[in-house]
Amino acid sequence: MLLPDIWFLIIPPIAGGVIGYFTNDLAIKMLFRPYRAYTIGKYRLPFTPGLIPRNQERLAKRVSDTIMGSLLTPSELQKLARRLLAIDRVQGAILWLLRMAQGSLKADTNDKSNKIIAGILRDLAGRSLPRILKVLARREDFLDHQLNKIFDDVLLEFQLTERQASQLSDWLMKIALSPNAVRLALIDFLTDRNILIIDESFREKSSGTYWLVANFLGLRNALIRLRNFCLDEKEQANERLAEVIDSLSLQSRLKEFLQNLSLQNLPVSTVRQLRKTLKESVRKYVKTEGQPLFESLSNSVDFENVAQLAISRLQSSETVNSSLEPISYELALVLDRYLEEDLEKIVAQAIPILSIDQVIVNRVRATSPENLETAVEGIVKSELQAIVNLGGLLGIFVGLVQSGLLLLR
């Protein structure tokens, strides 16, 4: 064969391969390029911009619909939420938050935590606690066990020591049973009416020798003279009364009486009645005076100082540090039970709030054609190159077929 005939058969495969290769490469490039539209006057040149930039709005909507309809369905989001909200992960997050809160308490230099905790304590002690106690005091068994224990262990076993009885008897003898106090008490007691009642009663109920004394001598004159003596002769009356008190050894008798005084010496019925009266009195006081009492106490307490002391104690407390992990686990269990019941509702409410579809649309819209091209090429670069190479191979094959036809002719 001559050389022109050989070239006549070789040119079609070479031309077909070049055309097929560069045509596919051009077609792929035209998907993204040109990145913007070109115009001549008022007319836009065809195929500008590229296919994807020209339809980027519609592409964004289709991508969003595809992802939300196939990938991020409510059921898939629920599965994803369950994996993310596993108990160990939730516990770790809660434990981290608790430690962050503890660390923020240590680093708090603006006394914000003190003021918040002080407000809580003030409201609890001044408002909430009195109202709760007032409601509880209406119950018949309110503080029943506690008051019985206090009565049995404290009041029933209470007894003055020798020193206490001596001090109390000394005080009573100096204040309540002094000669002057006894004299004034006699004056107040011996009124005309009381003297008349005593005299008449003595006359009616006496007999024998006492009847003669009561009816012929009587007590009226003696009691009136005693009253007048106490009024007119104060110093002498005090001296006579002091002699009588000393002769009767009233202080030692009073000391012995106080030392032996105990509720255990009372009858059982009296003790039971005292216990019942104590409980009723406490309940009544809490119902009527409990709220003003707690309010006045809360007004007198420096809760900011108390809150600062509490925070300082919590910061260095080993119990608090060791209890953070169990608390976080229990809170994680509570949250897991809640999510198990209402996760479907939460996901259904969260999807419109999150607006994932709109986020996808906005993200695709905001992506430049250059970045889209780079992203697509980064994902399917080898596949795109294979398409270009396939175009070249198809061109060579068509050229070979054409050369075969020419050779047959």
Write the layout of secondary structure elements.
Blueprint: H1 3-30, E1 39-40, E2 43-44, H2 51-54, H3 56-71, H4 74-84, H5 87-107, H6 112-136, H7 144-155, H8 162-175, H9 179-189, H10 192-205, H11 209-217, H12 220-232, H13 234-247, H14 250-260, H15 268-300, H16 303-315, H17 318-354, H18 356-366, H19 369-408
Antiparallel strand pairs: 1-2
Helix pairs in contact: 1-19, 3-18, 4-17, 5-17, 6-15, 6-16, 8-14, 9-12, 9-13, 12-13
Can you tag this structure with a few keywords?
409 residues, mainly alpha, two-stranded antiparallel ribbon, 19 helices
What do you see in this structure?
This protein is mainly α and 409 residues long. Among the domains are: 1-54, no CATH class; 56-84 and 318-367, no CATH class; 159-261, no CATH class. The chain has 19 helices and two strands. It has helices at residues 3-30, 51-54, 56-71, 74-84, 87-107, 112-136, 144-155, 162-175, 179-189, 192-205, 209-217, 220-232, 234-247, 250-260, 268-300, 303-315, 318-354, 356-366, 369-408; strands at 39-40, 43-44. A two-stranded antiparallel sheet has the order 1-2. The chain is rod-shaped and about 180 Å long. The relative contact order is 0.16.
